[in-house]
Design a protein that fits this description.
By secondary structure, the protein is α/β, with parallel strands linked by helices. Helices cover about 40% and strands about 20% of the residues. The protein has one domain. Strand 9 and strand 10 form a beta hairpin. The longest helix has 18 residues, at about 195-215. The two termini are about 30 Å apart.
Amino acid sequence: MKIIISPAKKMREDEDTLAPRGLPCFSDRSIVLLNYLKGLSYEELKKLLACNDQIAALNFERFRFMDPAKGKTPAIWAYDGIQYQYMGAQVLSDDELDYLEDHLRILSGFYGILRPFDGVTPYRLEMQSRLKTDFCKNLYDFWGDAPARALKADGCDVVLNLASEEYAKVIRRHIGDIPFIDVTFAEWVDGKIREKGVYVKMARGAMVRFLAERKAEKIDEIKDFCELDFCFHEELSDEKRLVFLKEK
């Protein structure tokens, strides 16, 4: 089983907690993107990233001096969003971190796909960015089936999707016959099931930690997750989707 998650927009550098165990498997392709991004003016980069001046200036400088082959922060520590905070990697045991290294994969607009202990450098580049160049129509075109092929090469027999659709479809489109299981975290609102972004991110992170703590290998083990008031609902689930509803 491989678990896929989205990256976070907010990133940090941490060279002290733990050292990287390797480099991203597609560092050479990241260099192609980097060379293109370095060639953009400040205004062009700001428009591509669809961000404010503070974020644009930060990443304009980041790209100027970045070397994708020399990332010093493990990906699991580099991303600093809500999902990663609830994952709580900093309090996991060595065995639990080893589980994540074997089972967890982080999808990325800049790196394609990452193992938790791949060394990365902070960046900003969302998968849905409107990056149209002479070598790709967009980032989905640029990465193609490469991330899915990397999962298959790792012996993936089932994908547990804890990523947003922006990132999940990078795998969904190319995974072929390998089972792809979506997970929905929602609640009843006016008689309908609705997802709320912050709670979904919290639950995704908590589920990653839950799976690491139990060294889960089978889909049925996921159904035991019952945290943040989310519990599994068999009657709303099927072989392609597991539904967890927030109990009031």
